[in-house]
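User: I've been trying to design a sequence by hand for this structure and keep getting stuck. Would you show me what you'd pick, starting by listing the structure so we're on the same page?

Assistant: Good idea, let's start from the same input. This is the structure you sent:
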């Protein structure tokens, strides 16, 4: 075997080329027999056969049955392979046949990829298949096909993948090429998937249109990592197939020059292939064409492709430059990373192209906000002219003419700035009074000493002005939390809506929209609901009857509709919806999907991007993350929820710019107020007495990592598992508590949540990823993770010996799942007479007789105990409340002797750690709840790096407990964009 990354011997490669050319000329009926008579070397024959197969079948992979294509009939297929019931053949390629199948154990459709010939089970093909599975299993990303399983049955090796409903990119490209706007949208998704693969150290090496699936909604899934080049660590594995150790691999029309020559390749080879795919999407034909594989290779090595701009009339020069740079012969002259490439594509995505039929010429108008005045003089389409005329403010703002003013200087924490409708006043939440809590303050936008509007120990935040500027409505945690109103000049606040959050006034000031609940990551049915009430207070009604969950409503400029984040009844996907105010009915938009396709992601600490202002000129403001920065973005959206242009970055700082407000001032300037926050997370520990009470104040146990979350202890406290989040991936680490040394056990590219849970013996970890909603078990020392549940929620507990785990049940809210290796998950802690109850954070008692969990009823979180029944069911009459009435509690945990329960609760109005004694004989709490650790400062909260409560990770060892704490500081800024007097 050659060493990793070495080049194949020149003579062997020359022999492969000779065989391929001769076979193509002679076109033998039996290629295998022909090769056997012309070449004595088995490895050379197999490589030549692979290239010949790729040229004849791989180009049509998944586009139809091979038997249909060549024989005009369907070939018979096995009835079952393993536990999978075969439905039909989907297609065949260079490495195998793909079937549509059904997983009878997990009750889901899958795609099953099987080796073409069972007698090859010990050959290079089998190694390639194993590499395909291992490479893809390590990549968990929304733009990469999910690999569920690998196995062998009846002498057949197979991989089980998610069943993607859609077409290959080849089938989606019309003869003349795609519209550039669609090309960019799809290309950004392909680049995002490649970026995740490269972040994991994997180069695809066979990127081509037939390995890219496009769903009905234009979502992208990259397939087939069978030719992928592994990272250096994986290359040391003796099971890595020879053909991926630097040798030539891939389909010839899309390979990079260095790959065609058999040299070692890196991520830049994928960038060349990406350029070939981009060229084909734009033009409808390949960048390098020829009558034989070798003639194509010769063109790749020695000839330049046609300039794409010469083939697509009026193409944005920036997009043409992207294609050209990807296709440079010298890898050093290409984009050096996919991140760099994706950034350039995102710039192309901000242009709006208006074009006529192909061949008739086209107008390309870049409608950035600085160019509206010039564009208004060009009659392109009547509807465009009408819309431009209505956008007078946009035509007067010249990009780049702005000033920055810091609001409320003085350190500490200042956030949630809100401008009055005329832009003259700004309200904000700040702890500047020195008592530790947030209060609402108001000051002139031009600068002056602020006036304090709220007083008392409860946190007050999320202020907004009424349309006439006389009132300020805000969220306060007083008396359980809700929306209050107070005069902008000061006075006594008055309760408007108990439990309300994120208030939004209708433009006429008659109505107030808000939402109530605790949605978490999945926005499950009943977890949150958006309402409207009269602005003076009164009965609330939902904004839409056909949404089973909704949050963050904002009004349009005419007060006829509300845009919100929601989940429709019976729908699995969260999105942005337009709710008609009068009919109380909502319809979905594609805004959220479009924004994500342009490379924007949820801001730090949030599970979704959400709108927070919809201005009179149609500008919608959001906070979003791109790369390492989290900024305020704006886009123009029509009344019906159509994206007209953008998004465009409004701010460009390096802090966490999370909340913002905007107003058009009397001088027609645009004023934008936003906060710039600095957030650090750490793990704190509290020593416990033998009686289970606090033995001392909280101490820092772990810091120094970005976005630490979900700490979990072994029973003896010697090991600590936790997650850390970086811009491109999430790490799961295990630390030796005594030495402080931590090692990475697993990494998940571009994930936001993993929620690792350590078994009591410290040997097993359970975790979950939001990328695919799969649950896993893995050794705490690392290794290959095993899927134990699909379409489930995060784990909540692991048995002491790691043999089983509890997971949240995903869309089925009133139960948990009991999961183990090679066993179908089954419901547990199922509350049979409360289907709307949301059951989360389940924990076994040490003796497994009781299950502790957080139950949400009527949007109120309470800690309950139930008996661990053999049939997994319980009734509401069996629920034993552990936390008290009148306050919310969440994230419970047992002491290791089963005599105490700990949880986070607002028993004193703040999120603090509390405990309560439990009688292990009957599960009944004894005595009152007692404090374990108080956190009454707004800058320091019991909270993980995200909104999922599981990231707090309250976990108990024999002598101490741990949890996550978030420390936040920040200030507010005012950005003023001046009108351009020259227009």
């Amino acid at each position: 075997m050659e060493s990793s990354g070495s080049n194949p011997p020149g003579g062997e490669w020359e022999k492969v080329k000779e065989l391929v050319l001769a076979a193509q000329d002679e076109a033998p009926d039996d290629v295998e027999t022909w090769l056997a008579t012309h070449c004595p070397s088995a490895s050379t024959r197999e490589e030549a056969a692979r290239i010949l197969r790729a040229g004849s079948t791989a180009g049509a992979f998944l586009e139809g049955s091979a038997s249909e294509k060549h024989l005009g009939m369907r070939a018979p297929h096995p009835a079952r392979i393993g536990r999978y019931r075969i439905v039909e053949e989907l297609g065949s390629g260079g490495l195998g046949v793909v079937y549509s199948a059904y997983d009878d154990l997990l009750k889901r459709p899958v795609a099953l990829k099987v080796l073409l010939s069972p007698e090859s089970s010990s050959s290079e093909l089998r190694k390639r298949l194993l590499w395909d599975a291992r490479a893809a299993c390590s990549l968990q990303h929304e733009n990469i096909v999910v690999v569920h399983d690998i196995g062998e049955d009846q002498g057949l090796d197979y991989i089980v993948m998610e069943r993607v409903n859609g077409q290959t990119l080849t089938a989606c490209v019309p003869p003349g090429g795609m519209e550039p706007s669609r090309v960019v949208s799809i290309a950004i998704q392909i680049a995002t998937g490649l970026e995740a693969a490269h972040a994991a150290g994997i180069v695809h090496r066979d990127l081509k249109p037939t390995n890219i699936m496009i769903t009905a909604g234009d979502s992208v899934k990259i397939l087939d990592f069978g030719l992928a080049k592994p990272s250096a660590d994986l290359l040391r594995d003796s099971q890595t197939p020879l053909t991926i150790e630097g040798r030539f691999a891939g389909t010839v029309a899309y390979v990079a020059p260095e790959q065609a020559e058999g040299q070692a390749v890196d991520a830049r080879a994928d960038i060349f292939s990406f350029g070939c795919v981009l060229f084909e999407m734009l033009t409808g034909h390949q960048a390098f064409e020829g009558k034989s594989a070798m003639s194509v290779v010769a063109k790749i090595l020695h000839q330049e492709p046609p300039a794409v701009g010469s083939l697509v009339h009026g193409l944005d020069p920036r997009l043409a430059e992207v294609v050209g740079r990807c296709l440079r012969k010298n890898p050093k002259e290409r984009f050096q990373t996919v991140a760099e490439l994706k950034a350039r594509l995102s710039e192309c995505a901000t242009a709006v192209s208006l074009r006529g039929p192909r061949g008739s010429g086209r107008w390309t108008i870049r409608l950035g906000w600085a160019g509206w005045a010039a564009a208004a003089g060009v009659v392109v389409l009547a509807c465009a002219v009408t819309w431009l005329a209505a956008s007078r403010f946009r035509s007067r703002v010249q990009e780049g003419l702005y000033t920055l003013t810091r609001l409320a200087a003085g350190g500490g924490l200042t956030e949630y700035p809100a401008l009055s409708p005329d832009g003259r006043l700004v309200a904000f939440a700040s702890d500047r009074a020195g008592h530790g809590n947030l209060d609402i303050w108001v000051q002139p936008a031009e600068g002056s000493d602020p006036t304090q509007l709220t007083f008392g120990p409860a946190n007050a935040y999320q202020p907004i002005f009424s349309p006439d500027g006389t009132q300020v409505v805000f969220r306060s945690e007083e008396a359980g939390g809700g929306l209050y109103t107070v005069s902008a000049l000061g006075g006594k606040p008055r309760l408007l809506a108990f439990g309300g959050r994120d208030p939004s006034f209708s433009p006429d000031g008659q109505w107030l929209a808000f939402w109530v609940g605790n949605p978490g990551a999945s926005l499950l049915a009943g977890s949150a609901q958006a309402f409207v009430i009269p602005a003076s207070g009164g009965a609330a009604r939902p904004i839409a009857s056909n949404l089973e969950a909704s949050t963050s409503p904002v009004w349009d400029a005419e007060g006829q509709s509300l845009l919100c984040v929601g989940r429709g009844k019976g729908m699995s996907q969260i999105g942005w919806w337009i709710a008609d105010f009068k009919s109380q009915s909502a319809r979905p938009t594609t805004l959220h999907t479009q924004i994500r396709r342009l490379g924007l992601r949820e801001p730090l600490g949030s599970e979704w991007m959400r709108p927070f202002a919809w201005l009179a000129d149609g500008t919608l403001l959001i906070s979003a993350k791109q790369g390492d920065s989290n900024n305020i973005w704006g886009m123009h959206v029509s009344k019906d929820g159509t994206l007209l242009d953008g998004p465009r970055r409004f701010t460009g700082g390096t802090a966490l710019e999370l909340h913002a407000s905007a107003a058009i001032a009397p001088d027609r300037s645009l004023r934008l107020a936003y906060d710039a926050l600095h957030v650090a997370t750490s793990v704190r520990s509290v020593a416990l007495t033998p009686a289970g009470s606090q033995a001392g104040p909280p101490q820092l146990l772990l810091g120094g990592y970005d976005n630490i979350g979900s700490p979990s202890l072994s029973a003896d406290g010697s090991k600590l598992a936790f997650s850390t989040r970086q811009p491109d991936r999430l790490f799961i680490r295990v630390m030796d508590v005594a030495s402080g040394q931590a090692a990475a056990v697993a990494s998940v590219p571009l994930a936001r949540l993993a929620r690792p849970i350590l078994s009591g013996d410290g040997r097993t970890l359970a975790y979950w990823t939001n990328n695919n909603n799969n649950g896993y078990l893995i050794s705490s020392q690392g290794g290959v993770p095993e899927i134990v549940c699909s379409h489930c929620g995060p784990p909540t507990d692991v048995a002491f010996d790691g043999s089983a785990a509890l997971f949240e049940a995903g869309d089925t809210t009133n139960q948990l799942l009991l999961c183990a290796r090679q066993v179908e998950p089954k419901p547990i802690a199922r509350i049979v007479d409360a289907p709307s109850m949301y059951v989360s954070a389940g924990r076994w008692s040490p003796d497994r007789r009781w299950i502790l969990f957080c139950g949400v009823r009527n949007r109120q979180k309470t800690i309950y105990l139930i008996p661990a029944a053999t049939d997994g069911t319980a009734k509401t009459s069996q629920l034993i409340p552990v936390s008290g009435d009148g306050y919310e509690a969440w994230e419970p945990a047992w002491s290791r002797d089963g005599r105490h329960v700990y949880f986070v609760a607002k028993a004193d109005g703040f999120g603090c750690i509390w405990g309560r004694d439990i009688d292990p004989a009957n599960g009944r709490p004894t005595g009152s709840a007692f404090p374990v650790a108080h956190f009454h400062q707004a800058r320091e909260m019991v909270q993980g790096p995200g909104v999922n409560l599981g990231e707090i990770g309250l976990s108990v060892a024999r002598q101490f407990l741990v949890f996550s704490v978030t420390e936040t500081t920040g200030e507010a800024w005012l950005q003023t964009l001046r009108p351009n007097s020259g227009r």
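That's my pick for every position. To get oriented when you compare it with your attempt: The two ends are 71 Å apart (CA to CA). Residues 180-199 form the longest helix (20 residues).
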